[in-house]
Design goal:
764 residues; alpha+beta; Beta-Lactamase; 5 domains; seven-stranded antiparallel β-sheet; six-stranded antiparallel β-sheet; 29 strands
Length: 764
């Protein structure tokens, strides 16, 4: 295997184990040293016990002293400056002062919340010479990888290039599957080593905590798995009063289970490079060596750069065998869609000729379900079994698709027909109607080559200590109740077929939906235009009004009566125009503001509206009739207040009877309505939103002629002269209708000319 924390006892999720987080605390590897510094004064809080081996200075002579004891003044100041401008993690080179000389160290700085971690390792070669050689080698490797078009050969070349850089005995490219298990897809090795190419490793080999570290793009290097661990002095961090969490650092110690695992493989040194694609751990480049091997820091950086390039190229490389298959599927789909577009019967179009439907996703059988009618094609379960299968699978459909290559493991009834349907791909054509296409694949007994028995990945020693498996010899497993997996482009082909069917067979419904969307968008644009236009019109209108009044005031003596009358008419018209613009502004805002829905008792709302109207119309004293208490409904109280105000003010104004009355009530069941006249709604319409209440405001006023019942809700539509019945803009009913429709209801009117009118509106 290839992971340094493989089989970590705190992370393996198996029977008999408890899953706990890995802290990676307490020790580091001896090839480098660690200092924990206070922030910002850079006092040394903790050191690794091997610091004297590298610097000749004992730990007790450094603790609680400034980092300056190890650096020249200029180097210390440069380090301080770097902390102000750098990221939370960065690398640098530090010249460390020892009692006898000055030594160059490669450093990595980790700025934590409460302190700074500084890990150092001795520079192994003249930096300039080494960097020049590495840059040339990496450039050549990248140039060769760019020229490689085959995906398999690309990974193989990547393994060879990393092996050339590191000179490790074995380098593997390792890819994870959806379950977290992985397989070796490329390998470069010494000739005498057994091959691992094609072998699989269980997901338990890499604990979740370690996967998360790799997902951050960290390179893991262990030059000597047998080297003794180096303790941290003191063991408790003085700031946190806890053991130090070393998970962010490259020098962190190695778990004994990991050491034993790799030693069982005959491995003494490892280097692991993360391959992270779209923020997901795609795979690893894993390097093994049979003897301890110390790589310069610059070489590891070069390997990390090469790994980043490999990751960036993953999306650009193509498997040509897969490309040929994709082209074939697309060609089949084009011909199939063309054939179903030329016929009227969907069922006949889908199942004839039979092989074409199956070839679209490389299936052996299919079932076409159109409501209660099911047609079977090829090798399938029975009709009754398909019906039961749809009932089980339908709730699990996500984005119109459900698929599995292990149906009997998820749905026990499918064991009875595993020979024809161990794999299922279910496509939902319509969310409204029961339209499905199901494709089936038979059981395929598959042989998987594992690197050792995956069930033995971690065993328990006496005393409860985990121990990794001893053998990594090829171990074969026969997988049952499973079909060939559905490939991503086969799933895409199924989805594309659905889109084609919707476009062809459900064209009218889709066209209606499109028209509705366009209407909604146009209405929104119209609302926005009305708002902007009416808002902008007020400024020049106000100027006309003001200048007209100034002319009347300043030039009254110079004007004759005709001139004065005309200016007064102009002033009156500008006021009228301003009222119309205000109404238009109010109407346009209704399409833009959010509804503030809340439970609202309509009784106090009606009472307040009536009080306001009695003040506005002091000469009007109609008899107000409310047969029963009004209900509480979910609505926007401010907007419904506007509706009640508009309807009741009309009832106040448009009444010339000696004894006037207004009745306000509601009907709980819409079927109580005698006529059911609703604007734009036929008597047999099935409204998806069924109002709970139909409210009405009835009066004995002047009434409305039948030919005008449809036009009274139009904007600025008045049925009388401006100077009759108290004036008005003709926008009140339009605004009321807009508000009710935004609540999901309808509004309409019934009237007998000369006898009175009843306005109805619905709310939930």
């Amino acid at each position: 295997m290839n992971d340094p924390e493989i089989g970590h006892p705190h992370s393996v999720k198996m029977a008999g184990f408890q899953s706990e987080p890995v802290e990676f605390s307490g020790s580091i590897q001896p090839y480098g040293l660690l200092l924990v510094l206070s922030n910002p004064d850079l006092k040394i809080l903790q050191v690794s016990a091997n610091i004297e081996d590298h610097t000749g200075i004992a730990p007790q002579d450094l603790l609680n002293h400034s980092l300056q004891v190890l650096l020249k003044t200029s180097s210390f100041e440069a380090f301080q400056q770097s902390l102000k401008s750098a990221d939370d993690f960065y690398s640098l080179t530090l010249p460390i002062l020892t009692p006898t000389d000055e030594r160059a160290f490669n450093g990595m700085v980790h700025r934590m919340k409460d302190f700074i971690l500084l890990e150092l390792e001795p520079a192994l070669a003249p930096v300039e010479t080494l960097l020049f050689s590495l840059q040339a080698q990496v450039r050549r490797a990248i140039a060769q990888l760019k020229r490689e078009s085959s995906l398999n050969e690309f990974f193989q070349l990547a393994a060879e290039q990393v092996r050339s850089l590191t000179e490790f005995d074995r380098v593997m490219v390792y890819q994870f599957d959806a379950q977290g298990a992985g397989a070796v897809i490329a390998e470069a090795k010494e000739a005498d080593l057994p091959p691992y190419l094609g072998l699989h490793y269980p997901a338990t080999d890499i604990p979740e905590t370690v996967r998360q570290l790799y997902q951050q793009g960290l390179v893991r290097f262990i030059p000597d798995l047998g080297a003794p661990a180096v303790e941290i002095i003191p063991a408790q961090n003085p700031v946190t009063q806890r053991p130090l969490d070393l998970s962010p650092i490259a020098l962190r110690g190695v778990d004994p289970c990991c050491v034993e695992y790799h030693q069982n493989m005959g491995v003494a040194a490892i280097l692991v490079i993360s391959l992270v694609k779209d923020e997901t751990l795609w795979g690893l480049i894993s390097c093994h060596h049979r003897h301890p091997k110390l790589l310069p820091y610059e070489v590891r950086e070069a390997c990390e750069l090469l790994g980043e390039f490999v990751t960036s190229e993953l999306s650009n490389k193509v498997n040509y065998e897969e490309l040929d298959y994709i082209v074939k599927l697309r060609s089949l789909q084009s011909a199939f869609v063309e054939s179903i577009s030329q016929v009227d019967n969907l069922k006949e179009a889908l199942v004839n000729p039979e092989p074409r439907l199956l070839e679209l996703v490389n299936a052996r059988g299919a079932a076409v379900c159109l409501e209660d009618e099911i047609v079977l094609v090829g090798a399938t379960p029975t009709v009754e079994q398909v019906k039961a299968l749809i009932q089980w699978a339908a709730p699990q459909i996500r984005d119109t698709l459900f698929h599995t290559d292990s149906l009997p493991k998820l749905y026990s009834d499918a064991i009875a027909y595993k020979e024809v349907a161990s794999g299922l791909l279910l496509l939902q054509i319509s969310r409204v109607r029961q339209y499905y296409i199901l494709w089936f694949r038979p059981e395929v007994l598959q042989t998987v080559d594992w690197a050792g028995n995956p069930s033995d990945s971690v065993q328990m020693k006496a005393g409860g200590t985990p121990s990794p498996r001893q053998s990594f010899a090829r171990w074969q497993e026969t997988v049952q109740l499973t079909s060939l997996p559905w490939k991503p482009y086969e799933l895409d082909n199924a989805l594309d077929l659905r889109n084609a069917i919707v476009g062809i067979v459900l064209r009218k419904a889709d066209e209606l939906a499109r028209i509705n969307q366009e209407l909604e968008r146009s209405n929104q644009e119209l609302d926005s235009f009305a708002y902007v236009a009416s808002h902008d019109l007020k400024e020049p209108l106000r100027g006309i009004h003001n200048y007209s009044k100034l002319l009347l005031k300043d030039y009254a003596e110079a004007l004759d009566e005709t001139g004065k009358n005309r200016l007064q008419t102009l002033v009156r018209l500008t006021r009228r125009m301003e009222s119309l613009i205000d109404a238009l502004l109010k109407f346009s805002r209704l399409g833009q503001a959010e509804l503030n829905l809340q439970p609202t008792d309509l009784n106090p709302l009606v009472d307040q509206v009536l009080k306001d109207l009695h003040i506005s119309y002091p000469d009007k004293h109609p008899d107000i009739r409310i047969p029963r208490s009004l209900p509480t409904v979910a609505c926007d109280p401010v907007l419904i207040n506007e509706v009640l105000t508009n309807l009741l003010s009309n009832a106040f104004k448009y009444n010339d009877k000696a004894e006037q009355w207004i009745e306000i009530g509601f009907i709980e069941d819409n079927r109580e309505l005698e006529t059911g006249r609703r604007e734009g709604l036929s008597s047999d319409s099935q409204d998806p939103i069924s109002p709970s209440y139909t409210f009405y405001i009835r009066d004995n006023g002047i009434g409305i002629r039948e030919r005008h019942l449809e036009v009274v809700f139009r904007l600025f539509k008045r049925l009388h002269e401006q100077n009759l019945y108290g004036g008005g803009t003709g926008a009140g009913l339009t605004i009321a209708r807009k508000i009710i429709e935004r609540h999901g209801g309808q509004i309409w009117v019934e009237s007998t000319y000369g006898e009175g009118s009843t306005f109805f509106f619905t709310l939930q």
